[in-house]
Amino acid sequence: MSTAPPAVEDGQDVDDSPVRNVEPAMLKSARAAWGGYLLGLVALAVVLALVTQDAYFTTLAASGLLFAGLAVAWNILGGFGGQFSLGHAVFFGIGAYSVALLKVDHGLPAPLGLVVGVLVCAVLALVLSWPLFRLRGPFFSIGTLALSQVALTLATYFEWTGGTRGVQIPFTELPITEPETWVAVFFGYLALCLAVSLWLIRSRLGYYLVAVRDDEDAASASGANPLAVKSAAFALSAGLTGLGGGLFVLYLGFLDPPSFLSAIDIGAFIPLLALIGGIGTVVGPVLGAFLLQPGEAYLRGELAGSSAGLSQGLVGLLLVLAALFFREGLWGKAQQIGKRLRAGRRGGARDRG
Amino acid sequence: MDLLVILVSGLLVGGIYALVAVGLNLVFGVIRVVNFAHGEFVMLGMYGAYFSSHVWGLNPYVSSWLLITPVGFLLGLLVQRLVIQRLLDEPLMQLFATFGLIIVFQNVVLAATRGEPKTVRTTVSGSTLDLLGVAVSVPRLVVLVVAVLLTAGLIVFLRGSITGTAMRAVAQDRRTAALMGVNVNRIYLLTFGLSAALAALAGALLSPVYTATPDIGFGFVLPAFAVVVLGGLGSVFGSLVGGLLVGVVEALSGYYLDPSLKQAIWFSLFVVALVVRPAGLFGQAGAETVGAR
User: Fold this and answer.
1) Most buried of A156, A330, B4, B291 (most Cβ within 10 A)?
2) Does residue B78 belong to the interface with chain A, where contact is any CB pair within 8 Å?
3) B131, part of any domain
4) What is the pTM (predicted TM-score) of this model?
């Protein structure tokens, strides 16, 4: 475990945030942090340009980028804020419904639908903050999970949401249809999520958020308002998730309620991506998504013929194993190793000197 | 339809919720482990009942006690040893790990059965009993009666036996319990095994009521959490009342509003209960924070 500055020593309250990765960008200069951001995006763009030569990889890249963005968005609340939401499918669904319904029923352009979706998600998150943040730890997760079930029931109940049939956007109405352009759009989405995440963690709000995660009472005593801080993070996280949902429905062309509001395939899968990559870091969730989302899609394709459910079963197993043995995630682990190497080198230099 | 019929059907549904919640209350209420995979033990119990009826011709009401409950106990021991034991101080990781277990169990069963729904037929499957002029389905009545009996038995066990007292002691303060000579790890193991056994038993008894599908467990676990929280964490009697209450609310809202909305209504009730009184109806105020730390 990396040693976070506050609250660890006294040995209490540790379970409020079992993952104590520290985002190094918090301590870097603006130039180093944003320089790293741009460099990473350029490198990613180069890789994408190479990968999208092939149609199959283009599809994988599109969904990988989208889910990377979603995992980064979830991590704003779940990682930096330590609030493990299992109900982000609610916002993913609302974003999708906003775009699809405004387009199909009212003929409004897709970008307007996206904006409306983001605003609805952010406002709903603020409204839900009051009851939900009275719940701590696992109770918050159970509450959000319950909400996502409510959302699914309501979405399939009402006539104006398309009931159980969902919403179909006619192909001719879709603003973008070429897969390569979608890769670019989702790349932009990921870049936006990363920028928000990086800005947040370097801002006063981000510092408060991490302080509240590590010790709510101490942070509150030092002047942070825990509810306000968590609500703001929730709104940002929800808004970005809604944007992802809106883009995804435009990409697919139809909205199937159980899969957009799925507690497992969306609600639990997004946190899993963040967990594998490294909860509480900016880059970690991206790594997790790039590894797992295409990996799962590939396995699903490979194993579909032989035995149904096997690829998903492996995802479940991975979730269990990650929770047991790998809770720092890839990026957290890499940072630990890096730190140990640096410390070793310093130690060596001292010995010689 | 008159109110009596609605109430009776609500109580019968409530019996189902209460039966599933009894086991969850042991792990979540008493030893404070967040086990999302509880519903999967119910699902496995249903399939167990199906296979023992299909292969050996065992009546579910026999196999449930003789075969499925002990197997459920062993499975619980295994899950506790391999997964839960390593995560005792980390409720959020318990949540991830047991959510992972849901996905594993669901998909293993999906792969094994090719997703075909399985129904267990018994001689009492379609039969009804006349109770106060209301026709009551026999398998559902069995579930309700067993739920009440198990609750009573569990209360006696937790209050009266040394092991039960040790379980409550571990829930209150693990360290002190250990100092008083309680083998904490064994209590955890035992409690988890017992909880899984009760879940599997519930599944077997539910097999004549519901058609088994791989994802049915997930449908049980959220109501069970709602019931445990509503009734009061750690209060076994509370979870019986909570279960019956949820069943009645479901029946009433199903009749007066719309059956497809019932879920939304009592989930909202659950969230409201969590917020207004996290200790639940019969739980001690503040009990929700004990042991979760």
Assistant:
1) B291
2) no
3) no
4) 0.87
Q: What is the CA radius of gyration of chain B?
A: 18
B224 falls within a domain: yes
A13 — alpha (psi -120 to 50), left (phi > 0) or beta?
Answer: left
B209 lies in a domain?
yes
Distance, in Å, from the CA atom of A88 to the CA atom of A107, rounded to the nearest integer, reads 27
Among B143, B139, B109, which residue's Cα sits nearest to residue B22?
B143
Q: If we measure between CA atoms, which residue out of A9, A70, A22, A45 comes closest to residue A329?
A: A22
In whole angstroms, what is the distance from residue A279 CA to residue A219 CA? 21
The pair of structure tokens assigned to A216 is: 């709510």
- Structural domain for B146, as ranges: 3-120+139-289
Reported as a single tens digit per residue, the pLDDT across B157-204 is 988 899 988 988 888 888 888 898 889 899 999 999 999 999 999 999
Task: At A185, give phi and psi (nearest 5°).
Answer: -65, -50
What's the total number of domains in chain B?
1
- Contact present, B271 and A147 (Cβ < 8 Å): yes
What pairs with residue A19 in β-bridges?
none
Residue B126 lies in a domain: no
Which residues from chain B sit within 8 angstroms of residue A145, using beta carbons? Answer: 222
List, in sequence order, every residue forming a beta bridge with A255; answer none if it has no partner.
A167
What CATH number has the domain bearing residue B170? 1.10.3470
Please report the number of interchain residue pairs, chain A to chain B, with beta-carbon separation below 8 angstroms: 153
Q: How far, rounded to the nearest angstrom, does the alpha carbon of residue A251 sit from its chain's CA centroid? A: 19
Q: What is the pLDDT of residues A94-107, one digit of tens each?
A: 999 999 999 988 88
**Among B residues 229-288, those touching chain A with beta carbons less than 8 Å apart:** 229, 258, 260-261, 263-264, 267-268, 270-272, 274-275, 278, 288
